[in-house]
Amino acid sequence: MQRLRYVRQLGLAHLVYPGATHTRFEHALGTYHLASRTLELLEQDAPLVRAAMLLHDIGHYPFSHALEEIGAPHHEDVARPLILDGPVAAILRAELGANAPEALFALIRGQSTNPLQGLVAGSLDLDKIEYLKRDAFMCGVPYGQIDVDRLIHAMVLVGDPPKVGLREKGLAALESLLFAKYQMYRNVYWHHAVRSATAMYKRLVADALVAGSIDLATLTTLTDEGLLAHLGARAPSSLLRALRTRRLYKRAFESPAAQLGDADAFEWIAADHAAATAAEDQLALEWGLEPGEVLLDFPAKTRMLELDLPMRDWEGAINLPSVSDALYRTARWLRLFVARPVPVRRDALLDQLADRGRRPPAPTPPGAAGASFRANQQCLDDARPGAPLRPDVHRAD
């Protein structure tokens, strides 16, 4: 848990928004506080829920979510052995009962039958409310203005069996939260310079994994600065120096997903890191650049604006799939970053990338980052009892 004091909440966003140096530890304390307030309003005594909010991010990698984009196990999978075994599990069992670690982990994964599941992992959980408010404040942007008090006062247990829902009086605050999330993705989380730094970091770590300069088990124990120091000692590179001195790659091409026509033809860039790396290096070769000097970026968050929430004093539930999809496609951009200026012909580039997406997937090369993650997966499997890690559906952060 203490490691999270040194893992920034927003990864490399501080290179663009200097105030964004807040940590996962601060966020965990904030969600714990919100849980305590909300449970009091709901007249529920649920120490397990408060503990789940405190521990929900315990498995995060350095610089938060970025490494999950290159095939690293989800941070909830990393958290599994930390919660189900060792000192944390012992404390949970001693304080909250023999099955507390398993029950708590089910809450974090969104797989519990607990009526309060929606507070921990759901389409309107306390995690989202807390991070949107904190991120906007620390970045100094006006987009995350959320009426937190109105939202938690409007929360209620609905139905049989009961689950967390919302009274009609909270609708305006809920609409503000959804639009705040869209604005934060469009203007902060997916800001072009933030994504450039993130793409550089992803390639840096992927290359280190392929070279054997670091392994997955080590990654899960390091802080932000600890990882950069490790790479500086074991795998110094021009990419690392550029990231440390904020010499970020520049945009050579960009387009919102809404203007790509068949955006599905480019999904492989987000889904298959090995294929994306191969395409990057092929483009670099064509343009006379070095491997790693061309980076593709097409961030994916398909459940970004997901909302399926029971209501009281309102007919049915709120579900806005069409609006959510339209906003998602305007917030999401396909970008190509380069270390040095190159002439890029838009139509030719899009045709080349779309054509690659239509090909059958090639086998992952033995040295690719995806293979490295699979080879290192045993490190996590050995670290906990029970079944192998599963790529289950995770909650929408």
Short description:
The chain has helices spanning 24-41, 47-55, 75-84, 86-96, 100-109, 117-120, 126-139, 148-154, 171-189, 192-211, 216-219, 224-234, 238-244, 267-271, 273-286, 321-331, 346-358, 369-381; strands spanning 155-158, 163-167, 250-256, 294-297, 309-312, 317-318, 333-338.
Structural write-up:
With 397 residues, this protein is α+β, with helices and mostly antiparallel strands. It has two domains: 2-190, Hypothetical protein af1432, CATH 1.10.3210.10; 192-302 and 331-370, no CATH class. It contains 18 helices and seven strands. It has helices at residues 24-41, 47-55, 75-84, 86-96, 100-109, 117-120, 126-139, 148-154, 171-189, 192-211, 216-219, 224-234, 238-244, 267-271, 273-286, 321-331, 346-358, 369-381, and strands at 155-158, 163-167, 250-256, 294-297, 309-312, 317-318, 333-338. The strands form two sheets. It has a four-stranded mixed sheet. Helix 3 packs antiparallel against helix 5 (100-109), helix 9 (171-189) runs parallel beside helix 16 and helix 10 crosses helix 18 (369-381). The longest helix has 20 residues, at 192-211. The model is unreliable at 377-397 (pLDDT under 50).
